[in-house]
Amino acid sequence: MSKHDEARRAFLVGVAAGAGAVAGAGAGLISEANAQIQPSSDATASSRPLSNGDEHGAFFNDEHAATIAAFAERLMPGAPGLPGAREAGVLNYIDLALAGAYADMQDFYRRGLASLDAHCRSTHNVAFVRLDAARQDEVIKALEDGKATGFTWPTAQAFFNTVRTHTMEGMFADPVYGGNMDFAGWQLVGFPGAQLLYTPADLESKDAFNRGPMLGLQAQTPIRRG
Predict the structure, then answer these.
(1) Is the pLDDT of residue 53 over 70?
(2) How many CB atoms lie within 10 A of CB 58?
(3) Which of 49, 75, 59 is nearest to 140 (CA)?
(4) 163 pLDDT band (50/70/90 cuts)?
(5) If you ran DSSP here, which 8-state letter would residue 173 be given?
(6) Measured between alpha carbons, how far is 37 from 58 in angstroms, rounded to an integer?
(7) Between the CA atoms of 175, 176, 179 and 185, what dihedral angle is there, to the nearest 10 degrees?
């Protein structure tokens, strides 16, 4: 993993560890870009079974799923012995969220992904997923700085901020929402998750609590069908 990737991981993990609420949050987290969302009148949040892993199909087609998976992995890259967005099932989290709680953001993602594809083809003659890691990072930086061409609504910065926020949610939210597979994000920041009980010794101890997350949470995440 490059020094650039290491620096990004260290920053994002530090942010998550410093904001403990993120680690225990659910799908109700709202992105900074939601103010720019134009919800359709018939958009409704549907209830879908949940699953973990690198799955999609609740909302994304194969092309869009590959783009989001690659984008999220550049935001939160994996490393030997350290999980990244792919290992944590971030794609599955975002896919399920857009078919459910974030259904009003479906057009936001469709338009954003179309603009991203147009920008990459105009600038590099290939789709985002065909670029090497360094060029993907260049594209993501252009989005973050609002310099990527071809974006109207959502703006380049709004699209970047939303995908980044949803990537963080997929890494660190409760596994029942389809991400944080095998508690990858929680283990990364040392968050113990929910516990059935804390013993008197736990409550009195001045040492960091290091018991693993309650496995029942993962077991409550049913496999998505279809």
Answers:
(1) no
(2) 21
(3) 75
(4) very high
(5) S
(6) 21
(7) -10
Exposed e or buried b per residue across 163-196, where buried means at least 16 C-beta atoms within 10 angstroms of its C-beta: bbbbbbbbbbbbbbbbbbbbbbbbbbbebbbeee
| Burial (0-12, 13-18, 19+ Cβ within 10 Å), 35 | exposed
For helices 62-75 and 106-124, give the axis angle rounded to 10 degrees. 80
Reply yes or no on whether the pLDDT at 9 is more than 80.
no
**What is the phi/psi pair of residue 6, to 5°?**
-60, -40
Note whether 28 and 155 are within 8 A (CB): no
More confident residue, 4 or 27: 4
Among the listed residues 53, 48, 58, 64, the one whose alpha carbon sits nearest the alpha carbon of residue 111: 64
Among 185, 166, 34, 23, CA closest to 94 = 166
Give the residue with greater pLDDT, 217 vs 149: 149
- Provide the token pair at 149: 């061409």
Number of residues that this document lists for the chain = 226
Residue with token string 């949050």 = 25
Question: Is a pLDDT exceeding 90 seen at residue 100?
Answer: yes
Contact yes or no for 173/20 (Cβ under 8 A):
no
pLDDT, tens digit (0-9, with 9 covering 90-100), for 164-206:
999 999 999 999 899 999 899 988 888 877 666 777 887 788 8
- Do 115 and 122 form a contact (C-beta atoms < 8 A)? no
Alpha helices in the chain (DSSP H): 3-18, 20-24, 62-75, 90-98, 106-124, 133-144, 156-172, 184-189, 200-204, 215-219
pLDDT of residue 204: 83
